[in-house]
Amino acid sequence: MEKEETRVSLKGIKDSFSGCYDYTERRMSLGGEGGIEATVCFLDGLVSGEAIAREVIKPATNETRFGGVSLQSRAIELFMSGVVYSSTAKLCTGLNETIEYMLAGFCAVVFDKAGAAVTFEVKSPVGRAVTEPKEEKVIKGAKDVFVEILKTNTMLVRRKIKSSSLKFKQVYIGEQAKTMAVIVYMEDYTDMDLVIEMEKRLAKPQTDIVLSASSIEEYLEDRPKTPFPQMLRTERPDRFCMNILEGRVGLIVDGLPMGYLAPGTFSQFYKVPEDIANHFVVASIMNVMRYIALVITVLLPAFYVAVAMYHQEMLPTRLLLSIINSRQAVPFPAALEIIAMLAAFELLQEAGLRMPSTIGTTVSILGALIVGQAAVDAKVVSPIVVIVIALAGIAGYTVPDQDMSAALRVFRFLFVLAAIVGGLYGLVLAGVLLICHMCSIESFGISYMEPFSGDKWRDKLRAFLRLPVRSTKHLKPELDPERKEDESD
């Protein structure tokens, strides 16, 4: 038998927030002097004191509104009927419920004798302004970005999708913090099985508080042990809305300046909003170049190691002689050179990310130009290795998603190790294993390699080419509920 929830009391609220310097309360007489006593309780800083005074206390102490009221139950009825100015009023009879509302930015007008409280939303407007995206650069598109305030983020989505079919389903995450989040979907486009599955997975997290993306990502992904990201994460509302209109289900969490999208397929991580903004020919060429850069960034260092160690006969004679001449004074083998330079490149990138922007630029210039040139002049590394690592690094920067870029860097090291062990044979075997691994991943019931794993060539071409807007639909074929039913039949 479940334990009955404790009724609201001023003492219970005080005990819950004992030792909290920001807990504040103010007693007031409804309708002026001689009226019913009530207590306004709130957390200073989380709410706006000006809003409390203007929207709650001022009308509550007005004699014409509450004059002559002698019962607390009648006063509660007046509060709920809209006598005060606040736009949101909630009646709470349980202590835990009242505390949750106070932690969410509400003030509570407590009536001790009635064992109830009326809460009003008076959140503090303090928050980061909507600025330009920093992680995802915008060339042609809207220059707004998600912030840490949930309602601001939902407003940004509403401004772009002005449809009653756009739904926001409220959920809470975390055992203690009860972090608010909303599941975003289009009622006409989204497969409701995806929405139900998202709800189920959000009920699993046992974390006490959600302060970072990793707090919930592992619970939402089908294969959390693989380095490949399985949920699309974006700070751009326009990219978020584009995927919602394609039939995906979104998630926005209070306190996190980003939106999540599921299911996440490999090809989707290589799509950028500028593909729609640019001419379809230009967008198609750039998309194909991104896939070519994918092959270069993952395979080029390993291919050089395999050829240098086992398959020198594959190189043209002049190129081979040039490589031999550049390596004659270098004391280290090619494999060690590649691994050392890859590690140095990762350290240099990490230093640039962690340092302040102005210093980070200086560190990058020092590492790339001065230290790199000095290492070549000192015959520590050969120039061809510097060129190979530089090309692989530049190709890696074309990946639109940072999580996908990090996963590819991991496999770049693994491919180099495979090339050291088995040459081109080891490289081919590693490639086959990687493709098999990627084909085994699913995201919310959708194959990670869609549309490459499908049997329709038109769908495969859509992953590489951006067709004219007139010949495309909003709904992605692999997310079409009707198509799934046809295939199951």
Please give a structural write-up.
With 489 residues, the chain is of the alpha+beta class. It has 18 helices and twelve strands. The chain has helices at residues 10-16, 49-60, 63-66, 72-80, 95-103, 150-160, 192-202, 214-220, 237-245, 274-277, 280-309, 317-327, 334-354, 357-377, 383-396, 402-439, 457-464, 481-488, and strands at 23-29, 37-43, 89-92, 106-111, 116-121, 166-173, 179-186, 232-234, 249-253, 259-262, 442-443, 446-447. The strands form three sheets. It has a five-stranded antiparallel beta sheet with strand order 1-2-4-5-3, sandwiched between helices. Helix 13 packs across helix 15 (383-396). The mean pLDDT is 83.
Strand content is 5-15%
Strand order of the largest sheet: 1-2-4-5-3
Task: List low-confidence stretches.
Answer: none
Shape: elongated
Main sheet characteristics: 5 strands, antiparallel
Query: What is the multimeric organization of the chains shown?
Result: single chain
Q: In which range does the helix fraction lie?
A: 40-55%
Q: What's the number of extended β-strand segments? A: 12
Order of helices and strands: HEEHHHEHEEHEEHHEHEEHHHHHHHEEHH
Mean pLDDT: 83
Rounded to the nearest angstrom, the radius of gyration is: 30 Å
Helix tally equals 18
- Helix-strand makeup class: alpha+beta
Through-space gap between termini: 46 Å
